[in-house]
Specification:
The two termini are about 35 Å apart. The strands form six sheets. The chain has an eight-stranded mixed sheet with strand order 1-2-3-9-4-6-5-29, with helices on both faces. The longest helix is centred in the middle third of the chain and has 41 residues, at about 455-495. The chain contains 38 helices and 29 strands. Residues about 1025-1065 have low confidence and may be disordered. It is α+β, with helices and mostly antiparallel strands and about 1050 residues long.
């Protein structure tokens, strides 16, 4: 029983297996919300309501500085080193109204150990001048701006999203309202931000009463309260006064809009063909649960699919206003409703904005399609239950929102007990929905920002920034620059004081017995039985039915205690003619949104989508990257168990009975083409696109579906649809017949198999009428679809200028293990974990010195590559060189392996394995990957982990020398850098000095039409950008970098590797 922490509320949720409890301290007001639910991981969110009325970036910079040391632990990196040892990882984000620190841990023992240390770092940090200098902003010895936070914000400040967001907030909110400001910090403000200002902000906002400790997972409540009591005892003297004012709640209210405003904002971009539109409204209060849920439902009704209202009239047309429409809500006392139109033709920006309101007003003035609206309500309910069946993480947003804006006594939390708000909405009629739509959207005042690309602005920014730096260098002079270099080194020396061994040793590594891994049970039917027939309680009942062994189809089941069913078809692409593989982009985009013949009748695409949405949670088609086979195609439908047979029938219709309709194909191609300029602006994605053209052969579907192929190929397809539609349709028929044969298809069903009616027999209808097969084709491997350079990387260094970014990104691709049983893999896994762990060698050597926001290695077993990447670096070469020195010093012994860091690295590997099996679906997919894709046992991860534990320091040196150093050596690597034009000369010079044969090439030079030539199509000739480097345009390479993740199964495909920060700023 806790002396000071009182239980305010506790209840079970009736839509997921969770119990929610809220505690609050009677001494300081520190609160905690616990969501009890089963699973191997605990998720901690330590949330503070943070409010500021300037663009200084103090909230964001403080978030970074918290990790630099605390009252009792005055060492930079100690928190993260302890977390590494405790099967934990830390992170943080800063949003407009909140700063949240995260702790992900495998097992309660590790979580409990790190919790009080973490909380002290939050509430009683050191905040030193030296930490601020290196982590936030400094001027390096060359006169350039650097710093982790500065690099991060520089990379996003002049993007279309960044400029539009700032402009929108300036128009929505007046100067006395905190929502108006950029909490991440504008670069002008970051350059003058002082440590004292950050300390002042901490004193004001980081109070115990303003902190809520949210924990999701298997929690020992008595232990938690004991930890919080002792922690509070240790810091109470640091808070002699506990302020009662709540940020946001006790601040000036947001004034309502009195008129609508339309504004245009330019963003730097050489390609001026496509812009963006953002429309924002002030909506209902987050305390109005029914209204917030109504907005969630309206999101589906208006912009949730190809048949939703706005998509239907603005996207699914011959000349789309946009490639897609997104509607979202930020829950606040005056919630912000945002509608975004992506890839809008620049000449139609104003027209597109006006069209939105024309459609909204028309919708509000006519009878609502109540059947479809109620389907949207039901689908919303299914999706909530589904995502919470997967992970309690989906409760984090409502819990944080309630802490910031809700009642402190916990009463406002009780709306999470049930989904009664959706019950109310199911009873709403035409009048309620139309009135709601009119009030908050159609007739409401709004702020519209038209994002217009500008080549002139791109040049102006480049010239202005160059002049600013040159003037500074001139003012500082040689001596001034030297002094700055000394100041930086002094700050780094102070920050990097060694942590005494005894400080780390007092924190013992917890046992793994507190980690509860998820177990699944495999069963097989039909052709899958050739891989072995399991002996378990799920397989035996199936074997009692003859069809289990007789069905001529590949069926793999993964049984777990889930309330939903995931039906997957994994389809080989090997039979698709190479010259037609770029058509897969169209085929996949069109798969669900096209007319079909069902039960002998033609269904138009609207009826197809509407019927699918009646019973599914989600449906999609994608490359098979997440099941470890990126060269396959995966069709996935997620449903409730009673819809199992219906889903299988629909899959048959989708695969074989769809109709290639000229109008629908034209719409699909137009949308894909409109997305290309936006895709080409991405500093994150373009290095991978360029690399694909160098490394992957034309046989690779990753290459064939890439932006740099679509940009030329789809122009030709669009023209052919006008002049020779039969040719396109015939080619698509060829693609379909090449894909959709039973010997190409594997079915993976993830479910509680005992709840399925006829789990095997239900597939009889799917295969009926198809040629009988007795074997299934092998899974496609990207390793078999490489160019000679992909097979043996070396002697290539391409630098691509990009006007749309302000920093640089690089990939360094070398050979790596191509088999999960490769004897080098255990040492590589541990070496990678050691190098990359927070406050480990790469963190300290690259990020900690402000050379890049991030750097990391990724393995891709499917292709046999190891990739080193730098992310948001002012100069990609200097980040690369620093990382190379780190690796070299560990190989030659200059830098010894830190035994505590090695222990932490091993713990991190354990966490990585736990994350790969964090819920029923991912654990089931991992089982399938191990057994089917890699051909190893279901327990391979456990065996691999044992081998990792046996790795010696010499094993690590060997793998660093033989494998990892390949990423840093000219003869063993392919280098791709995408950089702001002004950075190209310095980056080129660095690589040239190291002997790399640098070629500066335009993005356009890597485009490939796959030999498709169509009369009347003229490709644009792009003017060369950038300078520097001795190389000129060389032969167009064939490529396609694999993604590779840091995980053993290497699931992520590179085009799916996206920055996850969204609008939040992460540590």
């Amino acid at each position: 029983m806790s002396a000071h922490f009182k239980k305010l509320v506790q209840f079970d949720t009736d839509y997921c297996a969770s119990t929610i409890t809220k505690y609050e301290s009677t001494r300081t007001g520190l609160s905690s919300v616990v969501v009890d639910r089963k699973g191997p991981k605990l998720l901690g969110y330590f949330a503070l309501a943070t409010e500021i009325h300037d663009d200084s970036g103090a909230p964001h910079t403080l978030e970074h500085l918290v990790f630099m040391g605390s009252k009792s632990y005055r060492y930079k990196g100690l928190l993260d080193k302890l977390a590494n040892r405790a099967y934990s990882s830390t992170n943080a984000w800063t949003a407009t109204e909140q700063t949240v620190y995260t702790l992900d841990t495998a097992g309660w023992a590790g979580f409990a150990q790190i919790l009080p240390v973490y909380l002290e770092h939050i509430l009683v940090p050191t905040i030193t001048d030296a930490g601020c200098y290196t982590e936030v902003h400094h001027i390096d010895a060359t006169g350039h701006d650097a710093g982790v936070v500065y690099s991060e914000m520089q990379a996003v400040e002049n993007t279309s999203d960044g400029l539009i967001e700032v402009a929108t907030n300036r128009l929505l909110f007046p100067e006395n309202i905190g929502y108006r400001y950029e909490t991440g910090g504008l670069t002008d403000a970051l350059r003058v931000l002082t440590t004292d200002r950050i300390r002042e902000f901490h004193k004001e906002m980081y109070q115990p009463r303003n902190l809520c400790v949210i924990i999701i997972g298997e929690v020992d409540h008595d232990d938690l309260l004991n930890i919080l009591e002792k922690f509070e005892d240790s810091i109470i003297a640091d808070f002699p006064e506990i302020p009662t004012k709540r940020p946001w709640v006790d601040s000036a209210p947001v004034p309502l809009l009195t008129k609508s405003v339309v504004s245009t904002v330019e963003f730097p971009e050489k390609d001026e063909s496509m812009g963006e539109v953002s429309i924002s409204w002030l909506g209902p209060s987050c305390s109005d649960v029914v209204a917030i849920s109504a907005l969630t439902v309206l999101r589906l009704y208006l912009a949730g699919s190809s048949v939703s209202i706005l998509e239907k009239y603005m996207v699914e047309i011959d000349e789309p206003y946009a490639s897609y429409v997104d509607l979202s809500v930020e829950e606040r006392p005056n919630s912000v409703i945002s509608l975004g139109l992506a890839s809008v033709p620049t000449k139609r920006l104003a027209e597109a904005e006006q069209k939105v309101f024309e459609v909204l007003k028309k919708t509000a003035s006519e009878p609502v399609d109540l059947e479809y609206m109620r389907d949207c309500v039901k689908r919303t309910r299914r999706q909530i239950k589904f995502y919470l069946d997967l992970s309690g993480d989906h409760l984090r947003t409502p819990l944080i929102t309630d802490f910031i804006y809700g009642e402190r006594d916990g009463s406002s939390l009780k709306h999470l007990q049930n989904l009664n708000d959706l019950d109310v909405l199911e009873k709403w009629g035409d009048e309620e929905w139309r009135s709601f739509l009119s009030k908050w959207l159609a007739d409401a005042h709004h702020v519209s920002v038209l994002g217009k690309p500008s080549s002139k602005l791109a040049k102006e920014i480049k010239v202005k920034e160059k002049a600013r730096i040159e003037e500074r260098i001139k003012t500082l002079g040689e001596e001034g620059l030297k002094e700055l270099g000394k100041k930086l080194e002094a700050a780094k020396a102070e920050n990097d004081k060694p942590i005494p061994t005894e400080v780390i040793s007092q924190f013992k590594i917890p046992g793994v017995d507190s980690i509860h891994f998820i177990n699944t049970t495999t069963a097989r039917a039909g052709l899958a039985r050739k891989e072995g027939v399991p002996d378990n309680a799920i397989q035996k009942p199936l074997d009692s039915i003859p069809i289990t062994s007789e069905i001529p189809f590949y069926l793999h089941f993964e049984h777990s205690s889930t309330r939903f069913v995931h039906v997957n078809l994994i389809i080989s692409t090997d039979k698709v003619p190479v010259e037609l593989r770029p058509l897969l982009a169209v085929y996949m985009d069109n798969l669900f949104a096209t007319p079909m013949v069902k039960d002998g009748e033609r269904l138009e695409y609207e009826a197809v989508v509407s019927q699918l949405e009646k019973f599914t949670v989600e449906y999609l088609v994608e490359a098979g990257a997440y099941i470890g086979a990126a060269e396959t195609i995966r069709v996935k439908i997620q449903i409730e168990p009673e819809q199992y047979a219906t889903t299988i029938k629909w899959l048959k219709t989708i695969l074989w009975d769809s109709i290639f309709d000229k109008k629908r194909l034209s719409v699909a191609v137009a949308k894909l083409l409109q997305d290309i300029p936006e895709e080409k602006r991405s500093g994150d994605d373009m290095p991978y696109s360029v690399a694909r053209q160098i490394i992957s052969s034309r046989e690779s579907i990753g290459r064939a579906r890439d932006t740099l192929v679509k940009s030329l190929y789809l122009k030709r397809i669009a023209k052919l649809l006008e002049t020779d539609e039969e040719r396109v349709i015939k080619d698509l028929e060829t693609v379909r017949s090449s894909l959709c044969s039973l010997d190409n298809i594997r079915a993976l069903v993830i479910a509680d198999v005992e709840r399925l009616e006829n789990p095997v027999a239900a597939w009889k209808e799917f295969i009926e009428g198809r040629p009988v097969i007795d074997t299934v084709n092998k899974l496609d491997r990207r390793k078999d679809r490489l160019t000679p350079l992909g097979q043996n990387p070396g002697n290539v260094c391409n630098i691509v200028p990009l006007h749309s970014i302000d920093s640089s990104y690089s990939l360094h691709i070398a050979k790596g293990p191509d088999n999960i049983a490769d004897p080098r893999l255990p040492a590589l896994i541990l070496a990678q974990a050691y190098l990359e762990c927070v406050e480990g060698p790469l963190w300290v050597g690259v990020r900690g010195t402000g050379l890049a926001y991030g750097s990391s290695f990724s393995r891709n077993i499917d292709v046999g590559h190891l990739i080193f990447s730098t992310y948001r670096a002012p100069n990609a070469y200097t980040a690369f060189a620093a990382a190379r020195t780190v690796v070299e010093n560990h190989i030659n012994g200059t830098t010894p392996f830190d035994p505590h860091l090695l222990e932490g690295a091993l713990s991190h590997v354990v966490v990585t394995f736990a994350e790969g099996e964090a819920n029923m679906a991912t654990a089931s997919e991992q089982s399938f990957i191990n057994q089917v894709v890699h051909g190893v046992g279901k327990d391979w991860n456990a065996r691999l982990l044992r081998k990792v534990k046996e790795v010696t320091e010499q094993d690590m040196r060997d793998v660093l020398r033989d494998v990892v150093m390949g990423c840093f050596e000219r003869e063993r690597s392919v280098v791709v850098v995408v950089a702001a034009g002004r950075s190209v000369p310095a980056i080129s010079e660095g690589f040239e000095k190291d002997g790399f044969d640098v070629k500066v090439k335009s993005l356009q030079s890597f485009e490939d039409s796959y030999g498709l030539e169509v009369e009347g199509v003229v490709d644009e000739v792009e003017e060369e950008e950038g300078s520097g480097g001795s190389g000129s345009e060389g032969d167009e390479g064939e490529s396609g970098s694999e993604d590779g993740t840091g995980s053993e199964e290497d699931e992520d495909e590179d085009e799916e590797m996206e920055d996850a920060t969204s609008s939040e700023e992460e540590k």
